[in-house]
Amino acid sequence: MKRIVTLSIVVLAASAALAKLPAPVLSDEAKAKAAEAAAKTAHGGKVDAFKLCQSMDRVAARYMADTQKAGKEAKPASATPPCADPGAFVYPPLAATAPAPAPAVAKAPAKKG
Length: 113
Description:
By secondary structure, the chain is an all-alpha fold. It has three helices and no strands. It has a domain of 25 residues. Helices cover 57% and strands 0% of the residues. It is flat, with a radius of gyration of 31 Å.
């Protein structure tokens, strides 16, 4: 019984000590990887929305065709914008897209002799 109490006190003390530790400092490389992962996730959402839009267009076109075959008048309730294709995922790193600034070199005024 004493072992269980002692063990639980040690666990509580360790968890309290870990809770007080500061957040780990991320390197620039880790931040870049996190940003790329976020960009990939956002692009995936755009691709999913594009595929959903295409499937809704197919369903609407099929409904319109079936309704017209049945001899009924079929009109869309409202005009919808066309589906926007997000294209392929491209994530250029910031260092590759922005040119490095040229070092500023000050020229000395020419002396008149």
